[in-house]
Amino acid sequence: MVLNDNSSVWTELLDGPGRLDRLLRQAAIRHGFTYSIRSIWGEKRRWMGAVASIKNIKNPIGQTTVPGNSTRYTFADIIGRSPRLQNAKRLAELASRSDSTVLLQGETGTGKEMFAHSIHNASNRKNGPFVAVNCGVLPKTLIESELFGYEEGAFTGAKRGGRQGVFEQANGGTIFLDEIGDMPLDIQASLLRVLEERQVVRVGGQRPVAVDIRIIAATNKNLVEEAAGGNFRPDLFYRLNVLSIDIPSLREREGDIMELANYFVRKISNRLGKVVNHIASGVKFLFQSYDWPGNIRELENIIERSISFCEGTTITLEDLPEYLKRKQPVAGNYSVADLNLRHLEEQAISEALSKFDYNISKVAQALGIGRNTLYRKMKEYEINTGD
Ligand SMILES: Nc1ncnc2c1ncn2[C@@H]1O[C@H](COP(=O)(O)OP(=O)(O)OP(=O)(O)O)[C@@H](O)[C@H]1O
User: Fold this and answer.
1) C-alpha 294 – ligand 1 centre gap (Å)
2) 285: phi > 0 → left, psi -120 to 50 → alpha, else beta; which?
3) What are the pLDDT digits (tens) for 31-55?
4) Which residues form the Sigma-54 factor interaction domain (predicted)?
C-alpha cells in the first residue's frame, strides 16, 4: 500500500495509533489491498491518526479498474433528493443514451466515479469493458505506454509481443479518465489525437489501431481556469466538454446530508455487524452546519469511524473526530435553550419529511401544524421540498 504525502488520501485526523490501524486495516481489506503496518509506522509517524481514503490509493500505474466491466454502481445507488443532485442525475441519464463524450465536474468526493459507473451501466455499452484511469497518479515515465500501449522492443523491459494500452482495453466499452485536469501537458496533445481520430498508435509503433470507445472524463479542477493559466489545452477542453455535468458539493445539497448520513449508518453498521441505528440530535445539527470539504467521502468516513467507536446504538458527539467536534456552531443570537428548541423542531420536520416521502399534507398532519406553517418553517430552516 503506497501512502503518498501529497495525495488527498489523508482525510481525517483521529486520536490514536490503535484506531488508525483498525480503520486502515478495515478499509484496506474492503478495497482489496494488502495492509502492512510497517508502511504506516515507518516514516509516517507524523501522520499518526490519519485515516486514508483507500479509494484514492491507486496502484502504481493509476489504473483503478481492470478491463472487463467491474463497475459497481447504477443510478439507483446515487442517494439524494435535492434538486441539484436530481438535475445532475437527469442529465447523466440522458447522457447514457448517447455515445457522446461526458465531462463530470465536481469537488473531490462528490460521486463523480459513481456517476461514471452509472452512465456506463445504463448505456448500450454496459456489457463491454469499463476501464478507469487516474490521470493524476500515472508516473510520467509510464504514462504513454499505459495509455496507448507499446510494441515489442519499444524500450528496455518491453514485453514480448508488446502490450495493449488502456484505450485498446476499453474497446467496445467506456474509458473513464479520472482527474483529467492533472494530465501532463505533453500527453494532452496525444490524448487529443486519440479523441479526434478514435485511433491509437502504440509506443514504438506506426500502425494506427481503431478503438470504439465512449469517453467519460472527470475533474475537480476548473478546466476553464486551468486552460487560461496554460495548464490545460483549450482544444482538449472543447473536445471533452461535450456533455458537461456539474456534480454538486454536499454543502450545496443541504437536504441530502441527513438522508446520506442515515443511509451510511444502515449500510456500514450492517457491514461491521454492529447495531447502531440512531444519530444524536447534536450530531445532526453539527452535520448540517459543517461545510464538508471532502463531501460524501468525508461523511461516509466519519460515519464509519463513529460506528466503529460507538458503544451504544446512537452515534453521539463523543464518537466524532476531534476536528469535527471543534466545528460545533456557536449559539449566535440565540440562547442555548432557543437553539435546542429550534434544532429539535428542524429535526422533527426533517424526519417527518423523510418518513412521509415529502408528502407535505401528511407531514403537516403528523406534526400537528398547517401546511403553510410547515412551508414557512421549511423555508426558515432551509429544508428543501424534495422536488
Ligand atoms: N450520492 C451518493 N450516494 C451514495 N454514496 C455516494 C454518493 N456520492 C458519493 N458516494 C460515495 O462517496 C464516495 C466518493 O465517491 P466517488 O469516488 O464517486 O467521488 P469522486 O467525485 O469520484 O471523488 P474523487 O474526485 O476524489 O475521485 C464513494 O464511496 C461513493 O460510494
Assistant:
1) 10
2) alpha
3) 444 444 433 433 333 333 333 333 3
4) 78-308
Q: What is the DSSP-derived secondary structure letter of residue 98?
A: S
| Ligand 1 pocket, residue 114 CB under 6 Å | yes
Closest ligand 1 atom to Cα of 104: 21
- Please tell me whether residue 378 adopts helix, strand or coil conformation: helix
Check whether domain 75-246 has CATH 3.40.50.300, yes or no: yes
Task: For the domain covering 252-380, report its CATH number.
Answer: 1.10.8.60
Q: Which three cell numbers stand for residue 254?
A: 443541504
Q: CB of 300 closer than 6 A to ligand 1?
A: yes
Joined grid coordinates for residue 303: 460515519
Q: What is the pTM of this model?
A: 0.72
55 lines ligand 1 (CB under 6 A): yes
CA 129 – CA 99 distance, rounded (Å): 15
- In this structure, are residues 146 and 63 in contact, taking their beta carbons and an 8 Å threshold? yes
CATH 1.10.8.60 location in the chain: 252-380
Instruction: Tell me, using a 6 A CB cutoff, whether residue 296 lines ligand 1.
Output: yes
Looking at beta carbons, which pairs linking 188-191 to residues 24 or more positions away fall under 8 Å?
188/232, 188/233, 188/236, 189/233, 190/144, 190/147, 190/148, 191/147, 191/236
- What does the alpha-carbon distance between residue 48 and residue 33 come to, in Å, rounded to a whole number? 20
CB 40 within 8 A of CB 24: yes
Q: Is 248 in the pocket of ligand 1 (CB under 6 A)?
A: no
In the reported structure, the alpha carbon of residue 374 is separated from the centroid of ligand 1 by a whole-number distance in angstroms of 32
Per-residue pLDDT of the chain (387 residues; tens, 9 = 90+): 344 433 333 333 333 344 455 555 555 444 444 444 433 433 333 333 333 333 333 333 344 444 445 678 999 999 999 999 999 999 999 999 999 999 999 999 999 999 999 999 999 999 999 999 988 877 777 888 889 998 887 777 777 778 889 999 999 999 999 999 999 888 899 899 999 999 999 988 889 999 999 999 999 999 999 999 999 999 999 999 999 999 999 999 988 999 999 999 999 999 999 999 889 888 988 998 899 999 999 999 999 999 999 888 889 888 999 888 887 665 555 555 555 677 778 778 888 887 888 889 999 999 989 999 999 888 877 676 666
